[in-house]
Design goal:
2 copies of one chain form a homodimer.
Chain A lengths: L4 H15 L8 H8 L3 H13 L3 E4 L5 E4 L8 H7 L25 H17 L2 H4 L7
Helix pairs in contact in A: 2-3, 4-5
The complex binds iron/sulfur cluster (2 copies).
The first copy, chain A, binds a DNA duplex through helix 3.
Chain lengths: ~140, ~140
DNA sequence: TATAAATACTACTTAAAGGTAGAATTAATT
DNA sequence: AATTAATTCTACCTTTAAGTAGTATTTATA
């Protein structure tokens, strides 16, 4: 019952970048050191973030990463979507997955509310919202 | 962001057993067929449920499984605990895991409420509560 | 033009979850 | 006592997530 490492790392990376978006570019070496994320794994994640259009990369010496969009326009749910970690309406708590209104599982009714709150948390939190709140890692 | 297969299966198995606790014993073959759970995986799970004291097994011909406790006294959270899938108070949404009140992560504040609802759902749902609600698988 | 420092690509390895196979054990029935 | 049908044990296989290695590519600067 938790997000994948990739999603967790990506949120932390982007939250940190949002926190430091005054500095022109942030590079992978610095991000990995600051955030205690394995360098090679971080670059893999960054490449996915670039491909998905959330950030742009500048290659070559003095290169790095910066945002493509405004941080107020990037929601945490957008990040989760990249790593197939979104909470969808049809997300199933007991793994059956094809139930309808007539035939629902033992926990269906209890699941509705927390599922909705999770969705809300991810869909309504922008990077601007969560940047600068608390610690940096 | 979902329970492990083992937890999901275990909840479905026990909810079904609670639903059919009038029948003396339920055996693995029948449970596997009815619930569409791989037989060998199901027996592995059942053995863990026996060891943890939630159900008792009768071995040999005409054997099977039945509850050790009342279904009103078995909470879904008890099942999750067996498979290390509980939602703990200190459960971390961004995977850092050692933050305190002073230094908290970007999503800490937003996480409190849904986490609490998840805990509530699992801690306050007994097998009696969820049995007989909806479909059988 | 050579060098250095950065991202991107391809491929591999490791660890954990999910699942399977087969034999051993148990106990009721014939 | 033999058979049958059940659980349990040990060991293995498969798939996916997580992480690593090495090379290629790009670009600023001396
Ligand atoms: S009713 Fe339960 S098992 Fe069925 S799709 Fe909904 S959450 Fe999943
Ligand atoms: S503050 Fe955030 S990152 Fe830190 S332990 Fe709590 S949930 Fe995890």
């Amino acid at each position: 019952m938790q997000l994948s490492n990739s999603s967790q790392y990506a949120i932390r990376i982007l939250a940190y970048m949002a926190d430091n978006k005054d500095s022109k570019l942030l590079n992978a070496t610095e991000l990995a050191k600051t955030l205690y994320i394995p360098y090679k794994f971080l670059t893999k994640i960054m490449t996915e973030l670039v491909k998905s259009g959330l950030v742009v990369s500048i290659r070559g010496r003095d290169g790095g990463y910066k945002f493509e969009k405004k941080t107020s326009e990037i929601m945490v749910s957008d990040i989760l979507a990249i790593f197939n970690d979104s909470i969808k309406n049809e997300q199933c708590v007991l793994g059956i997955g094809f139930c309808n209104g007539l035939c629902k599982c033992a926990l269906h009714d209890q699941w509705v509310e927390p599922k909705h709150l999770l969705q809300k948390m991810f869909q309504e939190s922008s990077l601007e919202d969560i940047a600068g709140k608390g610690c940096k890692i």
